[in-house]
Amino acid sequence: MMRAPRFWFRPPRAPGLAARLLAPLGAAYAAATRARLARGQGWRAPVPVICLGNLTAGGAGKTPAAIHALERLAEMGVRAHVVTRGHGGTARGPHLVDLARDDAALTGDEALLLAAFAPVWVARDRAAGARAAVAAGAEALVLDDGFQNPALVKDLSILAVDAETGLGNGRPIPAGPLRERPAEGMARADAVLLIGPPEARAAAPARWPVLRARPILNAELRARPIGIDWRGRRVVAFAGIGRPEKFFDTLRALGAELVGAHAFPDHAPYAPRILRRLQAEAAQADAQLVTTEKDAVRLPPAFRGMAMPLPVALVPEDQAAFDALLRRALARPAQG
């Protein structure tokens, strides 16, 4: 697995030589996405389908957004199930995630995180996963990703956007981070969920004007309380997520002293030799080893508990507006 190249996040007006050379491949990627979406509307589930997706490859915050949607739906008395591809796992599904038996190698890490909040179906064929969920009693379906997948008709599509990196250089993969042309994605979206610190959220629409094509909801990721005072605590942190720097910044904001910070590719598996090296570094520095929840579920059984996971939660600036979107989706007439 590779980290996102730096040129992906250069200014759109100065993308650099690599992006220009890769532009034909990017155009082909965008055309393939367009052709896939043009194949048809997909299956119309008899229950509302709510999609938390993004326009970029990884790191936007869609999984915390999906968890927040699940929590809000539960508050509304709606029994929601999740349908996800299970990126990084081998299960083809439909497979109902079992936290007591399954591991990230089977289901992917995000599925395990989501399963703490609602039943989760891993399915390469999302329509098949949706049918299984409905048969099991789901009153609503939440898609973690799948915005570019036409297998299901969506009643609500929210695009998670990292306020700091936004749409990068504005070019499709591999010339940039985009899964499709922004204007085409915005045409299918109901709202943009802009996630990041206030100053970044304020600047993002001017840097990427296409974001203004849909209503913007502002939000940030905050550490969930776990009863630990991080102020002055020495930590060695590691993360294999879309943007590990966000995790390190969260720890610093809590007052932790980072004596080591190690970034790995998104969804990266951890070899025992790497984990032993991290353990030794933390012991030598008399520091706590800390990682993300997403990384913690990928640790091999022999290393479970070696690092303290720091959970994060999505906090919308306007919770009422977020809830209104969900209620609007729930109110749409079901068709079977």
Please report the number of helical segments. Answer: 12
Distance N terminus to C terminus?
40 Å
CATH superfamily of the largest domain: P-loop containing nucleotide triphosphate hydrolases
The overall average pLDDT, rounded, is: 91
**Quick one: overall form?**
globular
Poorly predicted runs of 5 or more residues: none
Please state the CA-atom Rg, rounded to the nearest Å.
Answer: 20 Å
Helix content class = 25-40%
Which fold does the CATH topology of the largest domain refer to? Rossmann fold
The percent range for strand residues is 15-25%
Indicate the CATH class of the largest domain. Alpha Beta
InterPro entries: LpxK (IPR003758), P-loop_NTPase (IPR027417)
Organism: Oceanicella actignis
GO molecular function: ATP binding; lipid-A 4'-kinase activity
Pathway: Glycolipid biosynthesis; lipid IV(A) biosynthesis; lipid IV(A) from (3R)-3-hydroxytetradecanoyl-[acyl-carrier-protein] and UDP-N-acetyl-alpha-D-glucosamine: step 6/6
